[in-house]
Amino acid sequence: MAIQALIDTIATKANISPQVAEKVAGIVFSILQHESPQISAQIFAKLPGAQQLATANDVMAQGQVNTGLLGTIANMLGGNTGQEVGALVNGVAALKASGLTEQQISAAGAQVLAYARQADPQLVDALVQAVPELQGQFGV
Fold first, then answer.
1. From 49-53, 68-72, 106-110, 133-137, the region with the lowest mean pLDDT
2. Nearest-CA neighbor of 87 among 100, 69, 74, 96?
3. Of 22, 122, 123, 133, which residue is most buried, by most CB within 10 angstroms?
4. pLDDT at res. 98
């Protein structure tokens, strides 16, 4: 499946425009990249276009970092865990800022992970095991 097919599927499943779906896919890929850099690098190597979407929608880029209450909590956790929590918090905040509901966020995240699973099911299983918060947030 090409990256455009993923974007089209997200748009259909989440009932959003293709432009928003592209941003959503990039945000989810960025979350994965920050949550588990080693595993996501292996996954991205098998998904042409995923790295570019993640980079273009980096949830930890300057100006994207959540400075509200959740951002403060993430920063207090510090270290690697703080970055991981911050990436997930920032990503979900960015998804909500795009106008998505919790149901749409879950559907979009599940589609991105299903897309990655087609390329390498074992790597996606390892990613979900390494970052169990993805299960609750993206319904996988």
1. 68-72
2. 74
3. 22
4. 85
Q: Look up residue 15 and give its DSSP letter.
A: T
Of 26, 97, 88, 83, give the one whose Cα is nearest residue 57.
26
pTM of the model: 0.83
Contact 3, 118 (CB under 8 A): no
Burial of 94 (0-12, 13-18, 19+ CB in 10 A): buried
**Whole-angstrom distance, CA of residue 134 vs CA of residue 36:** 11
Q: What are the residues whose beta carbons fall under 8 Å from the beta carbon of 66, sequence distance 6 or more?
A: 74, 86, 89, 90, 93
- 20-25 LR contacts (CB < 8 Å, sep 24+): 20/98, 20/99, 20/100, 21/108, 22/53, 23/57, 23/98, 24/95, 24/98, 24/100, 24/108, 25/53, 25/108, 25/112
Instruction: Domain count for the chain, please give it.
Output: 1
**Domain coverage including residue 74:** 3-138
Is the pLDDT at 74 greater than 50, yes or no?
no
Contact (Cβ atoms closer than 8 angstroms) between residue 27 and residue 21? no
